[in-house]
Amino acid sequence: MSVDSTYATGTRATAGALVEEFAAAPDAGVREAYRRLVEAVWDGGTLTGLALPAASEIVDGLDRAGEDRAGLLAVLLGLLAEAEAYVPDSPVRAAVRQGMDRYLDLLDRCEPDEPLAQGLIYLLAHFPEDRDRILAQVSRLELPVDDLSRLDRCLRELDPADPDLGRVWPAPSVWRLTDEERAFDRAWIASLSPEQITVNWRNDTRNVWAYMGAKAYWTVRDGVPAAIPRVPHPADTGATVPPAAEAGPELLRPHAAAFRCPACHDGLDFGAGSVRCERCAVTYPVTRGILDLTEGISDAAAGTGDEASANLLRKLAEMPTMGLYYEALMRPEFLRVAGSNWDAAVTPAAEDAYIAAHVRPVDGPVLDLAAGAGRWTGVIAQAVGAERLVALDMGLPMLNTLRGKLPEVPAVRASALELPFGDASLGAVVCWNALQAFPDDAGTAIAEVGRCLRPGGTFTLMTFVWDTDPVYRHFQAAHSFPGRPAGMLLFEAEQLRTWLAEAGMVIREESGSGTFVFITAERAA
């Protein structure tokens, strides 16, 4: 990399003036001054020509700014280092690292929940070459175990011979796996190429940086996050996934008229022991009350659906506690990051109340779309009656947990982008905290809901919109998940309104706190 060519447009005097303007800004003008500084050196993860001269000025500015403002500068230094974390001999990252003595000295004066401490911990997480020194200094802070495990993970170097991938978010410390689950992890990791291992490692690291950055930025900007109720860890309580009740097509048969074959769109035959499309000559497995419409067995391939059922049972056994981890440990933290819910303004009780107040079905089944592990399936069942409800998701571990908790509710494994239901066949649809799981195709999913809803039926959803602050928006977007390794993609509110209108729905209610959005729409006649 050529320093002259890449960082030729900035001067230290210009950078120093911006830092001084920020440090001296009146309290009412701090956010705007910070935004000007950020935008001058950093553009959504890409460095500007002013980044190199600014790095040293920002390090020096730590001593001139008050504690809260120094915390904001620490977050910005972390962003600069992160932008070129994997660029060999990055001059900007090197310039940021030159301040290591100062960072550690400032940290020595902090308490763990202070804004400056959180900003510094996020910044320090980008320098694994200083791991021993950083951890020695941090040890006196007595960080909460989750914070310490995040920092420890970011300061580790990849060991290609023994890569430890996955299970890092929201903190490595929450993942206490059984021997069987560790064996499952080792098996999928062993199937990866060296290049895939490196990509997965870096994605894991980015996820942890993004969580740490979001927490630090909220703390230095808005104050210490509100505590959220600590849910007992499944490993401490001995909680297990209740076995999904044995059930066949009879559990789904009351809703048979609403279903259609995902391939040919003809109706399905819910017989004595199987679900079948006669036109396609395909049998779909039903195991433990879960109908899998993704893996049918054709008559030409086999005479029965036994092979598909055996395959479904095997998949249900993989990582069976994922649903427990999600509900107890992952979902509350996801709401903090995606929904800017560090102030705990949106509670599970508030979500329950919204669903109960706004789901208003007409005749026909009620679909819990992307139902996950079933926490809100139970709420919907209380609102409309379990006998009306069908849960749909693509994740078998989640459906397995759902069926164990709600044996009276049938489940379907199928795509949200091509719902296995006929036109105007559903009385209501709920999609709660899930639309962002398929953001590239959210418009398609909403169009499918509009197609399947009967006139007057409600579509009730909760999802997330982008934060208007570019720094926090970066932390939202930097989270990657198995279905979207490039990073999280959220929505603009106006885009959601457009998709709903195009799907023939009229918004009856829209609200939300932070970056949450709650919407109830009705299918027009």
UniProtKB/TrEMBL annotation:
Q: Which domain of life is it from?
A: Bacteria
A GO BP term here is: methylation
On whether Transmembrane helix is a keyword of this UniProt record, the answer is: no
**What keywords tag this UniProt record?**
Methyltransferase, Transferase
**Keyword check for rRNA-binding:** no
Q: Which GO terms describe its molecular function?
A: methyltransferase activity
Q: Where is the Methyltransferase domain?
A: 366-457
Give the protein name, as stated in the record: SAM-dependent methyltransferase
Q: Name one Pfam family in it.
A: Methyltransf_25
The record, for SUPFAM superfamilies, names: S-adenosyl-L-methionine-dependent methyltransferases (SSF53335)
